[in-house]
Amino acid sequence: MTEIAKRYPHAGPLLGARWNEDLVAGCWPDLLRMAGSLKYVPGYRLADRR
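-> C-alpha coordinates emitted (50 positions)
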Protein backbone atom coordinates (compact mmCIF):
# COMPACT_ATOMS: atom_id res chain seq x y z
CA MET A 1 0.00 0.00 0.00
CA THR A 2 1.40 3.39 -0.97
CA GLU A 3 1.72 6.33 1.41
CA ILE A 4 -1.05 8.17 -0.44
CA ALA A 5 -3.41 5.21 -0.11
CA LYS A 6 -2.66 5.03 3.62
CA ARG A 7 -3.29 8.74 4.20
CA TYR A 8 -6.37 8.93 1.98
CA PRO A 9 -8.01 5.48 2.01
CA HIS A 10 -10.97 6.48 -0.17
CA ALA A 11 -9.15 8.71 -2.68
CA GLY A 12 -5.74 7.04 -2.54
CA PRO A 13 -6.33 4.64 -5.45
CA LEU A 14 -7.54 7.53 -7.60
CA LEU A 15 -4.63 9.79 -6.68
CA GLY A 16 -1.99 7.11 -7.10
CA ALA A 17 -3.12 5.87 -10.50
CA ARG A 18 -1.89 7.18 -13.84
CA TRP A 19 -4.13 9.41 -15.92
CA ASN A 20 -6.04 7.97 -18.81
CA GLU A 21 -4.88 10.67 -21.23
CA ASP A 22 -7.14 9.48 -24.05
CA LEU A 23 -10.18 9.79 -21.79
CA VAL A 24 -9.19 13.29 -20.63
CA ALA A 25 -8.46 14.40 -24.20
CA GLY A 26 -11.82 13.10 -25.37
CA CYS A 27 -13.69 14.96 -22.61
CA TRP A 28 -11.57 18.12 -22.71
CA PRO A 29 -14.14 20.39 -24.45
CA ASP A 30 -16.77 19.36 -21.88
CA LEU A 31 -14.35 19.94 -19.01
CA LEU A 32 -13.55 23.43 -20.30
CA ARG A 33 -17.23 24.22 -20.72
CA MET A 34 -17.95 23.05 -17.18
CA ALA A 35 -15.07 25.05 -15.71
CA GLY A 36 -16.18 28.15 -17.61
CA SER A 37 -19.70 27.85 -16.27
CA LEU A 38 -18.60 28.07 -12.63
CA LYS A 39 -19.59 31.44 -11.25
CA TYR A 40 -17.06 33.55 -9.42
CA VAL A 41 -18.57 35.56 -6.60
CA PRO A 42 -16.17 38.15 -5.16
CA GLY A 43 -15.90 37.93 -1.39
CA TYR A 44 -17.59 34.53 -1.18
CA ARG A 45 -15.73 31.95 0.86
CA LEU A 46 -17.00 28.43 1.28
CA ALA A 47 -15.54 28.20 4.78
CA ASP A 48 -17.90 31.00 5.93
CA ARG A 49 -21.03 28.97 5.10
CA ARG A 50 -22.39 27.34 8.25
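The first helix runs from residue 3 to 7.
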